[in-house]
Amino acid sequence: MSSLQRLPWHPDLAPAARQRQLVALALSSGRPVALWRLPGASHARLCLSLRVEAAYVGLPPALEATSPAGFAFFPFQDSDQNPPLFLPADLFFDLAWPDEIQVSATAAARLPALRQQFMALPVEASLPWHVSPQPAPAAASQPEYEALVQTGVAAIASGQVQKVVSSRAVRRELPAGFDVLAAFEELQARYPNAFVSVVSAPGVGTWLGATPEVLAEVGADGVFRTMALAGTQPLLPGHRPSEAIWRQKEIEEQALVARYIVNCFKQLRLREYQETGPRTVAAGEVLHLRTDFAVDLRKVPFATLGTDMLRLLHPTSAVGGMPRQAALDFIARHEGYDRAYYSGFLGPVNLPDAGVARLYVNLRCLQLRPTEAILYAGTGLTVDSDPAREWQETELKLRTVGAILK
Ligand SMILES: C=C(O[C@H]1C=CC=C(C(=O)O)[C@@H]1O)C(=O)O
């Protein structure tokens, strides 16, 4: 439940510096913090948790208006190495309203000490971002990735799976003087329609991304939304997305994701959903096919639809495959690295408004380490996949978040 209390807040700092010092407050005391900018929004928001232990929840979040307010950060596959997180909102700061801060009852009780800690931070305090305790994942070479694609195509041809999404990690050195918050700003400026985020938590590390894919949303209008996003091609200079022509392979790949979502509705015996598309959408310099699904929660007797759908959807066939378990088994056996939080999901729940949840698939993201970034990208395979083309597609997708490493 969003029972946050609004307090006037006028530290002698510019708004961006207030945000920076709140991040410093979290990191210097070993606490988790999340920053995000919603698609189309002009300002970033911040959630800081004082209750570190409470953040390791082990379950997907509940999306009802009465559920706790916070920020979800969920891995591709729940494991001891990659625990699901839900950062309880103890301090909430919105750059659109820099003269106020919202606090939970826990934070309200500790306000004098928090104020003191905040004031004691040096100007431009250093930001000791959390680093994952896991080793850096293996990065596949082009021949290795193409061999993985070939194995995937063979699994599809033999009927083991219908579709599988293979992926890889890439290690890139950080440019000298790399500043995470400046990179966060740059991602916001480059990708106004993406969900842009930085999440940093003990045991999890620091993740930065700009994703185009909604996993599950419950809007202020009382509508549940999700989408089937798949199929990829470059946005060519001088062309509009609506001019894109799609091959049969991409059309089928995306149709499978749409069918997966319809199957989730069917499992809940819900028929009253609206389906729009597919149509072509741009995500930075790439184009995708997208079908939107919407359910008006005020018109159906499904009080927990958001929560139920979230639990059925993740991981969707846009990041796993179909049938789901067979595709996940294929990935675990053949992919050769730990996806960790890549292709998991993230986003605010009841924060700041009760009854509004916005969860996105963690794509076009990177994990930060002290001197390098680990970037991630995947491609949906069908029986017609060409290994060299799939490699090129990962290269294209890597450019989205890779743009901040130049
Ligand atoms: C798995 C990724 O993208 C998914 C979302 C859109 C298009 C996709 C595709 O064309 O393969 C993927 O399913 C990724 O960006 O790493």
Automatic annotation (TrEMBL):
It comes from Hymenobacter yonginensis. Gene3D superfamilies: Anthranilate synthase. The lineage of its organism: Bacteria, Pseudomonadati, Bacteroidota, Cytophagia, Cytophagales. It holds the Pfam family Chorismate_bind. InterPro entries: ADC_synthase, Chorismate_C. Residues 142-397 form the Chorismate-utilising enzyme C-terminal domain. This is Chorismate-binding protein. Signal peptide: none annotated.
